[in-house]
Amino acid sequence: MTAPVPTSLTASPFHAGEMAVQTLAGSRDAMAEIGARVIRPAMPDQHRQFFAQLPFLVVGALDPEGQPWATLLSGTPGFAHSPDATLLRVNALPPSTDPLHGAMTLGAPIGVLGLEPSTRRRNRMNGTVVEAQAQGFAIRVVQSFGNCPQYIRKRDITPNGHDDAPRAEPPQTSLDDDAQWQIASADTFFVASHYSGADATERSAGTDVSHRGGKPGFVRVDDAHTLTWPEFRGNAFYNTLGNLHANPRAGLVFVDFASGDFLHVAGDAEILWQDEAQSGFDGAQRLVRVHVREVRRVRGALPAQWRDGETSPSVERTGAWPTA
Fold first, then answer.
1. CA–CA separation, 215 vs 189, rounded Å?
2. How far is the C-alpha of 259 from the C-alpha of 23, rounded, in Å?
3. SS3 of 51, please?
């Protein structure tokens, strides 16, 4: 008699929001076939080794009000390590200056993105906190999957760092001139989102954090309360868009890799279902617009200083916003 395949390997990793976006985008059938096979409930050895060699992790989690925020946690390579394929331990915590300070509590859903700027490698892991200690926390894996290197700018770490402690500025409800300049100059940001709908299962619910990249200025500042960015062709899972389709609360972080400054933006997202010809941006399959509710700037939050390298070839195939 053949042993039954564990439910964790056969249940769909996609929730109703992701499947709705996949349907609208035309990838639903393909994802139904490969989703449970590609999005795994444990990390392969190469992912475990990869996380252990990184000097920072991008994480997404919720504050006490259920608002997703994205941030970076840093440490000496090895500060994130995997004792087994279902567990990732992180010997770092968001400091008191961070919107996610105190968020790494037992049972908290967390999204993790490992990104190595020098090679453009990236891998994702989503799960829940199963250990919370004074020095760090541990995450039990729910979803583990790889990402392609598209749209990632190469960067190299330098010997220089930021010795002063991070300094948080007072929160704001709109984007001031400095924030608008940082966003308009950025070629990278990270976005956190969350889903916990009625249909959610242990396999499909939770928090996610993902990378977005493009030419500097690919995020358009429409005004002090509104941002718009183009969505380019990706893995067709639509984890971020699926979450935002069902729950529009989004948390963005723009990182200045030279100064170490973080600009955190919380807002409500809407997906604009325009094709490339309608969007006004070459390469855009659709647009996302975020209506800003809160802005937090932290000076010197990234300990290391990074040097910009070559842009991604996939970015070169995209356009720019039209100007008057």
1. 12
2. 42
3. helix
Q: Which DSSP letter does residue 147 get?
A: E
pTM: 0.94
Q: Which segments within the chain are labelled E, that is strand?
A: 56-62, 68-74, 80-84, 87-90, 109-116, 121-132, 137-147, 155-161, 167-168, 188-195, 206-213, 220-223, 226-231, 249-255, 262-272, 286-299, 304-308
pLDDT range class, residue 2, cuts 50, 70, 90: very low
Share of the chain above pLDDT 70, in %: 97
Nearest to 122 by CA among 100, 155, 94: 155
Which residue type does 78 have?
G
Q: Which long-range contacts (CB under 8 A, 24 or more apart) does 23-29 make?
A: 24/273, 25/236, 25/238, 25/285, 25/286, 27/236, 27/238
Three-state DSSP state, 230: strand
> pLDDT per residue over 219-243, tens digit each?
999 999 999 999 998 888 899 999 9
Residue type, 284: A
Contacts of 122 (CB under 8 A, 6+ apart): 113, 114, 115, 116, 146, 147, 149, 152, 211
Contact 196, 107 (CB under 8 A): no
